[in-house]
Amino acid sequence: LASTLAAAVALSSSTVSAFVAPSSSISIATTTHLKMSEVEQPDVSAYMTGARPEGTENYIMQQTMVRVKDPKASLDFYCNVLGFKLLMYREFPQWEFNVYFVAPIADASTIPEDEDGRWAMCMNTPGCLELTWNYGSEKEDAKYVYNTGNGDSTGTSDGQKIKGGFGHIGITVPNVYRACERFKEMGCDFHKSPNSGGMKGLAFIKDPDGYLVEILPQGKMVPEAIDCMGVAAEGGEGYKDNSK
To answer: Half-sphere exposure (CA, 13 Å, Cβ side) for 130?
Structure first.
């Protein structure tokens, strides 16, 4: 931890890599570079230990649902840009909506061909994303038709931004900087490149509806000198609360 934090501090006297756990062993000289919060922090250690409550042993965090304007554009993004696969879909013309479940399936040949098999696999796959298309939304003129939850005025009656609750979904990749170079080449819209802002080594891109997708490393957060947008690791404006 000390070596990781020291490397981050070396990049800038005011910014560090994100998600570095606090430790009492860090020297005073190091912590003088950090702006520490004065808010009393809750003790959450009890939630990291012990058995799951009885009856919940086989529960799965199976899905997050977002509404999308154009299902084809969304499937192109999640399957061709992020590498997910369409695991299952259902069409409900009587109610004028469809749902499409995508997930990072390593081997598409494992997806069953029959509907019952696809349903069973989908319901037992953690981390699916349910894309819901309400018929007619694709014909609306606006680029974005759904509020993303991040200080967004889309869909509000008075045109004012709301303080949203939903923030983003996230994926992890072997190397954030290489992944972002690919995303840039594919024409993705960046909300934050790896070196912009105060948190170095992570990025945010937007899906076709403006929802944020966080890009995090599968290993250590190691900033590189220059990112895909030409932003240097040194410096930065600090953390920004996207809900406002």
So the answer is: 17
Mind listing the pLDDT tens digit for each residue in 79-106? 999 999 999 999 999 999 999 999 999 9
Kindly name the residue from 138, 214, 224, 234 that is annotated as catalytic. 214
Total length of the chain: 244
Token couple for 71: 């299902």
Global confidence as pTM: 0.82
Residues contacting 53, CB < 8 A, separation 6+: none
Which of 123, 115, 120, 111 shows the shortest CA–CA distance to 84? 111
Question: Is residue 214 annotated as part of the catalytic site, yes or no?
Answer: yes
CB-count exposure of residue 195 (10 Å: 0-12, 13-18, 19+): buried
Six-digit token pair at 201?
């080594």
- Residue 137: CB atoms within 10 A of its CB come to 18
Contact 8, 26 (CB under 8 A): no
The two three-digit tokens of residue 118, written as one number: 């696809």
Q: Which residue has the tokens 């995090």?
A: 216
H/E element, 97: strand 97-103
Local structure of residue 41 (DSSP, 8 states)? P
Q: What is the largest CA-CA distance in the chain?
A: 66
Among the listed residues 191, 177, 184, 192, the one whose alpha carbon sits nearest the alpha carbon of residue 222: 177
Residues 6+ apart with CB under 8 A from 151: 161, 162, 163, 164, 242, 243, 244
